[in-house]
């Protein structure tokens, strides 16, 4: 329990020294942006296999988070809203939990009303490493329809920052 408390404090601190690549730019995604590796199959909280490649061609917010992370808890309701609003236009939010087993994740997802796929990332360093790996939580990547990582962000970001980035890609 002490470890989780310490991790929550560290996660909260990281939110205040967040690293971000959100910025105003003319093009929604840099021409030299790195391609996202979507060649992974992971389980969701219902125990089903989910191929990340199934979401190719959509705008993806891939959010790495943890149940002990205070900024994650604040940010997730914004992703719920964004998915509600922009899902019909081709946005998908994928919540990639890095810590708890399925029963704890399912309870957390229910508590926060997560309406998008919640993926089990414990022991999936291969996926985490393919995207960076995250240096803090939450860490989110916005992937364009062309499969390129257009933006990334570590720490809490307001809904408006994500919304601006995804609107440009939709």
Offer a quick outline of the entry.
The protein is an alpha/beta fold. The protein has 5 helices and 8 strands. It starts with a helix and ends with a helix.
What layout of secondary structure does this protein have?
Blueprint lengths: L1 H15 L2 E2 L20 E3 L5 E3 L7 E7 L4 H17 L4 E7 L4 H11 L5 E3 L4 H6 L8 E5 L5 E6 L4 H11 L1
Parallel strand pairs: 4-5, 5-6
Antiparallel strand pairs: 1-8, 2-3, 4-7, 7-8
Number of helices: 5
SS elements, strand count = 8
Unreliable sequence segments: 1-26
CATH H-level superfamily: Glutaredoxin
How does the overall form come out from the CA principal axes? Answer: globular
Give the strand line-up of the largest sheet. Answer: 1-8-7-4-5-6
Mean pLDDT: 87
Specify the biggest β-sheet: 6 strands, mixed
How much of the polypeptide forms β-strand, as a percent range?
A: 15-25%
Q: What is the CATH top level name? A: Alpha Beta
């Amino acid at each position: 329990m002490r470890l989780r408390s310490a991790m929550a404090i560290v996660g909260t601190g990281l939110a205040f020294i967040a690293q971000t690549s959100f910025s105003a730019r003319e093009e929604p995604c840099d021409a030299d942006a790195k391609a996202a590796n979507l060649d992974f199959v992971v389980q969701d909280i219902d125990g089903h296999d989910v191929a990340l490649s199934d979401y190719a061609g959509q705008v993806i917010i891939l959010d790495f988070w943890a149940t002990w992370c205070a900024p994650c808890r604040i940010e997730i309701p914004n992703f719920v809203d964004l998915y509600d609003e922009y899902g019909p236009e081709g946005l998908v939010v994928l919540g990639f939990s890095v810590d708890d087993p399925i029963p704890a994740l399912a309870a957390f997802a229910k508590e926060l009303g997560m309406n998008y796929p919640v993926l089990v990332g414990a022991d999936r360093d291969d996926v985490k490493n393919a995207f960076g790996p995250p240096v803090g939580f939450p860490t989110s990547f916005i992937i364009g329809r062309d499969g390129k990582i257009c933006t990334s962000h570590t720490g809490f970001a307001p809904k408006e920052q994500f919304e601006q980035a995804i609107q440009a890609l939709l």
